[in-house]
């Protein structure tokens, strides 16, 4: 019998001055498992101060092209407002990050939240938007931050390009045109 764990999207905050950024996904059985997997996959060497995870199924997403071709149809018939966290992709230049956290809005449904987000946070053009109910986001606890994130600060991280040659003579030989 083949079964798979659900996919969880991972958001990492590198430091207190930067926003949360979508860095990838993990598969996990529950939120705690997703946070542990996210820590092991995304915080082994780069710095971090906090992680968020959310089930991929909780994300309402739209690309700029979809927004052009399909107008939003906010429902506004669900009782009560909810908080939604908003992420925007504004550049293709960063290959590892899908979207940056730009803020939160209160709305009755995801489409209404996206309408508000575009009005409030679209100083830069958005190539894509993610709207996530705040109650679907699970965060690393403040108390675990030193144990989870401090060890990564002392590990050296080297770019793959730094491993190519042992010495200058081999480096020069490797760059000769043939």
What does this entry show, briefly?
It is built from 5 helices and 8 strands, in the order ββαββαββαββαα. It has 178 residues and is of the alpha+beta class.
Properties at a glance:
5 helices, single chain, globular, four-stranded antiparallel sheet, 178 residues, alpha+beta
Characterization of this structure:
It is a single chain. This protein is α+β, with helices and mostly antiparallel strands. 26% of the residues lie in helices and 27% in strands. It has five helices and eight strands.
Class of secondary structure makeup? alpha+beta
Q: What is the N-to-C order of secondary-structure elements (H for helix, E for strand)?
A: EEHEEHEEHEEHH
Mean pLDDT: 82
The total count of helices amounts to 5
Large-scale geometry: globular
Main sheet summary? 4 strands, antiparallel
E-strand count: 8
Instruction: Give the N-terminus to C-terminus distance in angstroms.
Output: 54 Å
* Gyration radius, in Å: 20 Å
The main sheet orders its strands as 2-1-3-8
Report the helical percentage: 25-40%
Regions with little confidence, pLDDT below 50 for 5+ residues: none
What is the strand content? Answer: 25-35%
